[in-house]
Amino acid sequence: MSLERSDVAGIFQKRFQRAPRWTVRAPGRVNLIGEHTDYNDGFVLPLAIDRAIWIALEPCSDGRVAVYSADFDQSGEFAPEQLKHEQAGWIEYVKGVAWSLRDAGYPLAGWQGVVQGDVPRGAGLSSSAALEVATARAFAAASGWEWEPVKMAKLGQRAENNWVGVNCGIMDQLISATGRAGHAVLIDCRSLELAPVPFPQGISVAILDTATRRGLVDSEYNQRRACCEAAAKAFGVRALRDVDSARLHGEAGRLDEVTERRARHVISENERTLAAAEAMRRGDAPTLGRLMNASHESLDGDYQVSSPALNAMVESARAHPACYGARMTGAGFGGCAVALLDAAAGDDFARRVAAGYQAKTGHTPAVYVCQATNGAEVFSGGAIRG
């Protein structure tokens, strides 16, 4: 069962003996297709999911920010005007957003609150971006300035890049801030143009958690990004988004073997993502599924960011007759896969895929069918404010 507003508000009530002034919610995400394209100015097709980070809060007159994490049973406190790195962990994401907002000229009022979430950490579902966007939404509520989703997504990304130290692209924060219920969102990561794309009728998305984790900062993510930048430089373009498959094939001699493989994934993945959005608009689930399958093969073979656990999960999902396609999702090296399936078979799919994966690996997975939800919201007095 997903975490609800009342859960985090109830913890706030117990700690402070009163109801919160606001409760904010920012969702995690799953990306249907378009992996490792965002930092190449490319295209992605994610959806905001019904797993989220929640913050219940009230304003503080002393100007400080004091936050209790119900998930970690830890508290953190800081003054937005006197920020410094003191420790690793969840509080640095909150401080990083404060730093990014302050540096962009936003006045920051103090607040105290409780944060709780049900986005699995380290699973490739963007728990960190959800925390960043929820924190920005909390500051907007407490400080009284207008919520601008795209601008806040950029500042959340900046916090993760320059404060936390993860060189992520814009997709995670952007979909958490701008998601739309019942839709995936085609994002042009260069222009930040957003195009909601409705789900085909009778189709569900399943998130398949392998129960294996990777540390993104310590992974090879930054190496992959550097490789893509080197490939773009070799072609004399701003980003690999500006190279198509025909040019790569004709001028592959510009690149060494490894760089060519990395570039081939990104270039072909951009093409698959645009084709996938068109398939969704037509209600063509089989074509969308085939494109997802091809994406996984490219991520495994050319980009080399899959893992034995992810491959076993994808194989288990594809073996079910209701599955149209499946692929790893997220940065890779562990975490989750995503599958497209006939909605009527959801319970049987979850049961059989979990059993098949556990038999292959010995890991106990989590499999759940998710819904596409809205992006970040703030609640006050029981109403949703835009």
Overall 3D form: globular
Question: Which sequence of SSEs, written as H and E, runs from N to C?
Answer: HEEEEEHEHHHEEEHHHHHEEHEEE
- Portion of residues within helices: 40-55%
Range of strand content: 15-25%
How would a textbook summarize the main sheet? 7 strands, mixed
Quickly count the helices.
11
SSE blueprint:
Elements: H1 5-16, E1 22-31, E2 43-44, E3 46-60, E4 65-69, E5 74-78, H2 90-103, E6 110-117, H3 127-143, H4 149-164, H5 171-178, E7 183-188, E8 194-198, E9 203-209, H6 221-235, H7 245-250, H8 257-282, H9 285-301, H10 308-318, E10 323-329, E11 336-342, H11 346-361, E12 366-370, E13 377-380, E14 383-385
Structure description:
It is a single chain. With 386 residues, this protein is of the alpha+beta class. The protein has 2 domains: 198 residues, Ribosomal Protein S5, domain 2, CATH 3.30.230; 172 residues, GHMP kinase, C-terminal domain (Alpha-Beta Plaits). Helices cover 41% and strands 23% of the residues. The protein contains 11 helices and 14 strands. A 7-stranded mixed beta sheet has the order 5-4-6-3-1-13-14, with helices on both faces. A hairpin with a 4-residue loop joins strand 4 and strand 5. Helix 2 crosses helix 3 and helix 6 crosses helix 8. The longest helix is centred in the last third of the chain and has 26 residues. It is globular, with a radius of gyration of 21 Å. The two termini are 26 Å apart. The mean pLDDT is 92.
